[in-house]
Design brief:
Layout lengths: L8 H16 L9 H5 L6 H17 L1 H11 L2 H25 L9 H11 L6 H11 L2 H15 L2 H16 L1 H22 L4 H7 L4 H10 L10 H9 L2 H32 L3 H29 L1 H20 L4 H29 L4 H12 L2 H15 L5 H7 L2 H22 L20
Helix pairs in contact: 1-7, 1-8, 1-10, 3-6, 3-14, 3-19, 4-5, 4-7, 4-18, 5-6, 5-10, 7-8, 9-10, 9-15, 11-12, 13-18, 14-15, 14-17, 14-18, 14-19, 14-20, 14-21, 15-16, 15-17, 16-17, 16-21, 19-20
Length: 448
């Protein structure tokens, strides 16, 4: 049977990166714009925090099943499905804003916006199938660079959107901003569909060639990673290891915290310190970009000094930063603490996925699914929690009420330091254990 193989590694890398970038931007769906809904819908801080976090709920949980789907069908179909659902969600937000804002945005619209946030957040989940798709294309010697480029550029989307949204709102208005966003999402989905292809193994299998023959042909064309076994079994195996859940907690605190702060900071700086929304958004966007970019250095430091040492030091920054931001009512002190938190989180994010293949080598793909999916859930949990803390503060202590929410990072960070120490002790007990061979989707461990 003659099969015409399509695509290339670099073509798929950049196509997949564009798809992830536009999908991941949904982190900021109700970031600055949520404040436009606050007054007409009479939202308290907790309700506002839930609205901001809603896209992160679907964007977290869907990473797990859609990652498992890749080993059967390749990444192309899962990513297109997720981006298509996200398009419907953003379309719904645009139509709602166009038809109802501002006069008819009542509290009755709130559940509908929560639902649209869930749909739009599906784009956030494109990370897991996209990174698998890229990994199957590249030889091992180039995967660090390829996955670093994919995750690094894609992770810039929330920060850039936070920076641009206030300017767009001022010049275009709410509904037009969502229309432009919809156009960008549709265009990014089109670019992905045009350029990103499944690796040759999946193309061969889909044409009717047996898996063994497809693997042999793919290897002859230079492929080094071939899917072996079932991802569902890997998920089950990893789920039975307590170390997996320790890593989930580490990632919940730092990557989930990164997502949560990205959506919460504009509202926090505006409500607690009275900063104008454009200024608050620029500060939040700058912090988000810095936290994303420092992951690159964090990965290099983890390679040089070890994931545990770097992760532990990063968690110290998170704990101290949480105390500084949570115990001050000054704007400058709060910024200092938040800067420490965001930089520490970015470094620890890289350290976690440096540790994962060494701690759970027998089920790397499954562990990566649990850690990447449930860890990101922190972005959904924390904003409503902060809203409840702020809402419970007396009027005279409003600034302190908002600031005290940052103490959650000190508590979470301290618990994670204990976890990191336990993981270190377990590893030290078997210093001479042989290093197992990491196969198939193990490359998921290199970046999330």
């Amino acid at each position: 049977m003659s099969v015409k193989l399509q695509g290339s590694a670099n073509q798929t890398l950049w196509g997949a990166t564009v798809g992830f970038f536009v999908g991941f931007a949904a982190v900021s769906l109700f970031n600055v714009t949520a404040l436009k809904f606050k007054a007409p819908m009479h939202l308290n801080p907790a309700s506002l925090g839930l609205l901001m976090a809603m896209p992160l709920l679907s964007g977290s949980f869907l990473r797990i099943p859609f990652s498992a789907w890749v080993d059967r069908n390749g990444g192309r179909k899962p990513v297109i499905v997720l981006l298509s659902i996200s398009i419907f969600g953003v379309l719904g937000v645009f139509l709602t804003a166009h038809a109802l804002y501002p006069k008819h945005i009542t509290p009755a619209v709130y559940p509908w916006l929560l639902f649209l946030g869930l749909l739009s957040g599906c784009g956030i989940a494109t990370f897991s199938p996209g990174i698998s798709q890229v990994a199957f294309w590249f030889p091992k010697r180039r995967q660090g660079w390829a996955l670093g480029a994919y995750a690094g550029f894609g992770n810039l989307a929330p920060g850039l959107f936070v920076l641009l949204m206030p300017l767009a709102l001022a010049h275009l208005g709410l509904s037009t901003v969502y229309l432009v966003w919809l156009a960008l999402l549709a265009a990014g989905t089109g670019i992905y569909a045009l350029f990103a292809r499944n690796a040759w193994y999946f193309q061969l299998v889909s044409s009717g060639i047996s898996t063994d023959e497809a693997a042999a042909i793919a290897r002859a064309h230079g492929a080094e990673i071939i899917p072996v076994g079932k991802a569902v079994r890997s998920l089950a195996l990893a789920g039975g290891r307590w170390e997996t859940w320790g890593l989930v907690m580490l990632y919940f605190t730092t990557f989930g915290g990164f997502l949560a702060l990205t959506v919460w900071l504009p509202n926090y700086l505006h409500a607690a310190f009275g900063k104008p929304i454009p200024i608050a958004a620029r500060i939040a966007g700058g912090f988000s970009l810095a936290s994303s970019l420092v992951r690159v250095s964090g990965g290099a430091w983890a390679d040089k000094f070890g994931g545990r040492a770097v992760g532990f030091a990063a968690l110290v920054m998170v704990v101290v930063g949480g105390m500084v931001a949570g115990c001050t009512v000054s704007f400058e002190g709060s910024l200092t603490g938040i800067a420490m938190i965001m930089l520490g989180m970015g470094i620890n994010n890289a350290a976690v996925f440096k540790l994962l293949p060494n701690i759970i080598p027998e089920a790397v793909s499954g562990a990566a699914g649990w850690v990447g999916g449930l860890g990101a859930l922190g972005g959904f949990v924390l904003p409503p929690l902060w809203g409840e803390i702020a809402d419970s503060a007396p009027a005279a202590g409003k600034t302190a009420g908002y600031s005290h929410g940052m103490l959650a990072f000190s508590v979470l960070g301290a618990g994670c330091m204990v976890l990191m120490a336990v993981l270190r002790a377990k590893s030290a007990a078997v210093p001479n254990s042989p290093q197992p061979v990491v196969r198939e989707s193990a490359i998921l461990s290199q970046a999330v």
